[in-house]
Structures are given as C-alpha cells and as structure tokens.
Amino acid sequence: MVTPQPQLQVQPQQPPPSSQDEALKRNTDCVYFLASPLTCKKGLGFIVVDGVLENETHDVQRSGVNDVLCIGGENRHYGIPANPAAPAQVLGVSSSGAAVTVVANFVDFALASVWDKLLSYFLLPQVVMCRTRISKFHGFLRNLVPSPSSKPKAKAVHFLNQHQGKPKSKPITPFRSDSNTNMKKLKKLNMKLKEKKKDEPRDYMRNVIGKIYNTLKYSTWETAESELNNIPLKWDSYTVNKVLKSHPPMEKAWLFFNWASGLRGFKHDQYTYTTMLDIFGEAGRVSSMKHVFQKMQEKGIKVDSVTYTSMMHWLSSSGNVDEAMQMWEEMKFKGCHPTVVSYTAYMKILFDNKKVKEATRVYKEMISSGVAPNCHTYTVLMDHLIGSGKCKEALEIFEKMQEAGAQPDKAACNILIERCSKVGGTEFMTHILQYMKENRLVLRYPVFSEALEALKVAGESDTLLRQVNPQFYIECSVSKNKIDSITVAADSPTNMDKELLFVLLKNRNVVAIDHLVRGMMEKKLSLDHKVVSTIIEVNCSHCRPEGALLAFKYSVTMGISIERTGYLSLMGLLTRSNMFSKLVDVVEEMTRAGHSLGIYLASLVIFRLGCARKHTFAIKIFNLLPDNHKCTATYTALISVYFSAKRVDKALEIYKTMCSKGFCVVLGTYNVLIDGLERNGRYTEAEHYRKEKKTLHANSGSQESVSIEGKICNLIFSVDVIL
Question: Mind listing the UniProt keywords for this protein, alphabetically (predicted)?
C-alpha cells in the first residue's frame, strides 16, 4: 500500500485558461491515468477512469510509466522496472510499472488497458492505482471492459475538473511532481530482494537429483511416485537421464522410466533409452535390454553409435559374442558410422575372445576410414600384445602413441602395469613406471601390490616402483609393523615409540624422527631394517644429511643391515654434499652387509672422487670392491684418479696391470690415457696411444663383440674427460 501522496495545490490567483489551452487540456489531462502519451486519445481508457472515480476511490495516481513504445519496459531515466517476485524475469511491456506496484503490495490493484489500434502487438497500460477495498469493485471489474462488438456505455472522462464538485473521501492527487521518490523506493526494494536472494540457499540440480535418487532407493514405489508428482521440476530428457545415470535400483529405475513416459509433454529420446539399456545390461538382464532396444526401434527413435556400442558391450559380457558381432554389422548396414569408441570397444571384444585376425581387420578399417586412434585404442592393442608375450612390440606402440600425440593416462598405465605383472613383463613395466614418474601418475593399490610381488619374483629392484608410489610404501610399512606389534603388550613403551615413529614417517616430520631415533638408540630399541631404510630415504629426499647419517649410525650401533636402496640414497646425498669421508664409511658398511655397488656405480663413484681430488678415498673404495667388480670400467676409473693426482707413472702402471689380468682395452680407456698424458705434458706417449685407438676403432666391426664391462666403460668415458 502506498501512503497518501501530497496534494497538488491549485493556486487561486492563476489566470483563466484560454480557449487553446482548454482544447489542449481536453486531450491531455487524462495523461495522469494513462501509461504513455501515445494513448492520450478518447477510447477505452476513459471508461476505466470514469468507473474508478464514480466508485469513490481514494488515491488515484500515475505510476512511473514508460514514455515511449517498448516491449521490455525500459525507461530512459530509470531503466527496466525490477520484478520483486522473480528478479530474473521481466514484468511486461509498458505495463511494468503497474505490475511492480501490485507485486510489491504498494496498492490493492492497478488497472491497465490496451490501445485499440495495437491490440494484437503491444500492451500499453493505462494505470490507475487505488487504495481501497477490492470488494467494492468486483462487480465493476467484471463489466470494466466491454466486448469488441458493443459500444462503451460509461461516460468518458476528459479532464479532472469535471469531478471536483463531487464529494470524495479524499481529494484526487494528480501526477506527482517528485516521481523520483517512488523510483528510489523501487530501487531500494530491488536491492533488498537481491540481498535476500543471495542469502537464500540455492537448490542446485545435483542436489535435486540426489534427493530423487534417495527417494527411489529408500522408499516404496507408491511413496516415491507421490513425491515425484509433487516435485516442482520441469521433467525433460536431460533431467530424466540424470536420474537414471545416478544408478537407482534396477526395478525402481524401470518404474521411473515408465512413469516419465506418462508425463504430459515428455518423450523419451535415444539418451534415456541408452541409459536404460546400460542399467539392464549391467544387471545381466539381457532379455530386458533387448526388449528396450526393440521398443526403441519400434517408436522410431534414432539409434546412434553409442547405443549400438552399449549393446555390443553388454552382449559380449554375457557371452553372446556372435550377437555382438551381428550388432556391429547391423550398425554399419543401417548407415550408422562407427566412432573411435565403437571401433575400440569392438576390437576389445574380438581380442578378448581370441579373434585376433578379425580385430586386426577392424583396426585397419578404422585407420582407412580416417578415424584416429585414441589412448584407449592403443591401450587395447598393447594389452593384447603383452598378454601374447610380445612386450617388445607393445613397447614400440607405447613410444609411437606418444609421438602421435596420444599421451597415456592414469587408467592406461594401471591396465598395462597390471598386465605386465601377470605375465612377468618387468622390462616393459620399467618403461611405464619411468613415464609415470615423469608425469606424476600413480598406481591403484591393488595394481601396486601385484607389481611389487612381480618384481620380487623376478629378483629386480622395486626402487622405481616406490618412487612412483611412495605413499603405498609408507602405508605398507606401517600396517606391517602394526600387525607385528600385536604380540607386544599394548602399554609397552617400546611399542609406543614404534607406533609414534610410524606416524611421524607418514607425516614426514623429520625433525621429530631425529629426536625419536636418538632416544631409541639410547634405550637400545631395535627397529626393522626396512623402517630404518625408509628413515634414511625420507631424510635424503629432504636433503638432510645429518638426519640420514643419524639413522645410519643407529643401524651400525644396533647391528642392523639396511636395504641396498637405503645405502644408495645415502651415498648420493653425501656425494652431492661433498661429504666424501662419510661416503667411504657407507661403502664399507654396505660391503660388510653383503650388498654390492655394481660396476657402473662403482666406476662413477671412483671417478667422482678423483675429480674432487680425493684420491685416497677413491683408492679405498676400489680396494673394497670384490674381484668380479674389478674390471675394465673400474680400472679405467682408477687410472683417471692417478692422472688427476699428477701421478702419471702410477696411472700407466695400473694400465699395465689391467692388461696383464686379461681385461680388454676399449675406446673409453684410450680416451682417459690420451687426455691424462696430454694434460701432464707427455705428448709422445699420448700420440702412441692415439694410434692404438685408431687401430682399435678400425678393427672393431661392431659393439656386439665388446663385453658389458667394456660398454659401461665406453658409456662413462666416451668423450675426452676433463679431470
């Protein structure tokens, strides 16, 4: 309701209007009641005004109406009137102002008429706002607008002065001079409604679908049906398909599907039918799935490649491979072009059923038709090759697919690792794990467990596997030690320290681990060798040599032989930190524990110590090597150490010793000899060895005749090294 508007005071001293003014007034005074100057003509609008005034209305005013012909209710001064009930919707055309006043409860009712010449085009309201009881006008409103065939019986209103002599409960207030006040109120109301709308929680579609799913799952169909009928939701194909894809119980899904068929204005399409097919196929109800597919065809609904692919998949899953192949031929016969998903699914069906020739033919057909394989297509091919023992061919496809721009994803890597674990293809598994490490992909826990077991059976290192999935290793250690700790009393301090250590390891709290390890060393509490190795590796990954050395000291004190990976991680950290004296201690303990460095790593360590001018440490490590590790590569590394120490004669003596023991001289050895002699000014001898190198290079037909030790030497010293 609008408060009474201030009256427009008529000054008595005004001069009487002229005849021209009177004529203008007769045609324009009614603008106070009309929506637009375009409607200021005698017509239907005058009947409305006349009837309102004769029924003793109170406040008759004009709202903030439009001053031009429009459709959206725009006003060049105040914009589009806001809809208080639904801010996102438009109220109407030039009658927007009248609608706002009613919806905002400013007035009991507002009148609007139609310009007779534009009745079928635009609504141009002639607005009259009244503060009175609507009951007084029920009969009047029924007879307000006469039929087009009859002439108006009410007397038209030309100007307001005709009604000044009639008694009124309140005087008529014409057009307000300060119309900005009402517009400001509407703006404030609009702002309040927007703020209120923000505060109200939104009901997102996913929440609505979730509620419908819970209703179908936990209620009887009778209860669910009544609730569905009361949901204020527009049931279209998208919404019905979303509900079906939420996987309600199969019986409820079918009842819901049929219920949706009976909705007024709704019709199932290929998407809802295909989803219903998938529900029956997943439940193994092949006959019901075929029935739905038949109904789909009978009703003339488009059957696309997605529907055919679903049918092929579920038919083959139920063992009907021949029917799946018939479905493929039917799809092509009816002119439905297969997509890359269709080709891939059909190839997998054929490979799984040992129809390799047919699958190869389908793959060639896909390539010839211009359909590019995707990641899943390559995965199907590699999965078949690995299962057939052709890991080399699978590795070639793995590399070529990356060149083609199809990068293996997490799902593909998990599928391939799982297949490699079952057939023992550890070489291909290593390539995939390296790719996963570079692209930060991880395995699922069941696949990780299978891969770990496969590497143990093959006797190969699981370092790369644990680098790709460090979280599983920690969890495995924690769970294993928790099982072992069942035999220990629950209130045992030893058990409490171990459990705390496992928690700290999982959270990578290395500082707290240091304090706990010191305490356990003082208490002489022993830990499992895997746990100690994990502590060392965690500290190495955080570049903390002090923490790693503390754990190493604990293992030596307690007589624990840690894993080889723990020793190697510590050696790498100490080498990067130039802590070479500690490096020798680690190698000594590693050798005592029965672990070997390996020829390649031993040669690198010796060569690195020589470059750092730590000749004594390099000689110690060479002497710690077992006899089967003293070969061409390690001797060459030792020769480079003596050259860097300016002990040329000793270097040549080591070279002669190597030759006397029957180790073949390779190109890498000559590179070290030539470079070392030239650096020490002995060019004549360097030229002698250069000629021998050329002779060796000319006589070596291929690298196949070179031993593995010689290849390692060539790999490390393949170019002129800088000592």
Answer: Repeat
Assess if residue 323 is contained within a domain: yes
Range(s) of the domain holding residue 538: 469-595
Characterise 283 by phi-psi region: left (phi > 0), alpha (psi -120 to 50), beta (else): alpha
Domain co-membership, 384 together with 433: yes
Three-class DSSP category at 532: helix
Residue 77 sits in the same domain as residue 172: yes
Nearest in space to 144 (alpha carbons), one of 95, 97, 173, 109: 109
Q: State how many domains the chain has.
A: 5
Question: Residue holding tokens 């090294």?
Answer: 721
Measured distance CA(536)–CA(263) in Å, rounded: 68
| Radius of gyration, alpha carbons of the chain | 45
Q: Are 275 and 244 in contact (CB under 8 A)?
A: yes
Helix (H, G, I), strand (E, B), or coil: what is residue 114?
coil
Task: Please report whether residue 604 resides in a domain.
Answer: yes
The CA-atom distances, in angstroms, between 289 and each of 274, 403, 582, 618 are: 10, 41, 71, 74
Burial class (CB in 10 A: 0-12, 13-18, 19+), 467: middle
Q: Which of 634, 643, 583, 655 is nearest to 611 (CA)?
A: 643
At 257 the pLDDT is 93
The tokens of 133 are what? 């009881």
Cα dihedral 336, 339, 342, 348 sign: positive
Q: Is 63 found in the same domain as 168?
A: yes
Question: What is the model's pLDDT at position 193?
Answer: 67
Residue 92 has a pLDDT of 63
What percentage of the chain reaches a pLDDT higher than 90? 20
Residue matched to tokens 């061409």: 632
The single-letter code of the amino acid at 110 is A
| Listed residues 198, 229, 249: the one ending a domain | 198
Q: What is the pLDDT of residue 53?
A: 52
> What is the rounded CA–CA span in Å between residue 367 and residue 373?
8
The counts of H helices and E strands in the chain are 35, 2
Residue 2 lies in a domain: no
With contact defined as beta carbons under 8 Å apart, do 657 and 665 qualify? no
* 235: phi then psi, degrees, rounded to nearest 5: -85, 100
Pick the last residue of a domain from 564, 595, 626.
Answer: 595
pTM above the 0.85 mark?
Answer: no
Ranges of the chain whose pLDDT falls below 50: 1-14, 24-47, 56-58, 64, 66-69, 113-178, 475, 477-493, 702, 720-723
Is residue 300 left, alpha or beta, with left meaning phi > 0 and alpha meaning psi from -120 to 50?
left
Rounded CA gap, 554 and 516, in Å?
A: 11
